[in-house]
């Protein structure tokens, strides 16, 4: 005969909890665009930079016909100035970010070097303190032995 097995823990959930609420399907309103870049995937770290650059240039080549159509459509003096200002703004923001990141990188390197110097100083201090502790214990023991020893024997003077 099989004995029932009792497993401690949480009780099973009801059927109504197991039913997942019905969700409406997602409707995509805008078409999804993508670019296919043919070629072999890079295998080493050094090749990643080149492949990223080639991927960006391939995307730019794919998107350039779209830009030409837009340029023909919006080729007024106002749009030209807007494109120039947007390009300058993009360049200025990029330069600003690079400067901030570069200077903060230099600051982090300087702080890291100072922390390494502090760590070395602390390690030397710990070594010196251990040596000082050992020397002070040795001096204490020698002083105790000197004070407990009798230098001058007891002299008995008889009258």
The first-to-last residue Cα distance is 111 Å
Instruction: Enumerate the spans where pLDDT stays under 50 for 5 or more consecutive residues.
Output: none
Please work out how many helical segments DSSP would assign: 3
Q: Helicity range of the residues?
A: 55-70%
Secondary structure tally: strands: 0
Assembly form of the protein: single chain
Radius of gyration from CA coordinates: 41 Å
Spell out the helices and strands N to C.
Answer: HHH
Strand content: under 5%
Shape: elongated
Derived from helix and strand composition plus strand pairing, the structural class reads mainly alpha
Average pLDDT reading: 76
The biggest beta sheet is recorded as: none
Would you kindly provide a written description of the structure presented here, covering whatever features stand out?
With 159 residues, the chain is an all-alpha fold. It has three helices and no strands. The mean pLDDT is 76. It is 66% helix and 0% strand.
What's a quick, concise take on this entry?
The protein has 159 residues and is mainly alpha-helical. It is built from three helices and no strands.
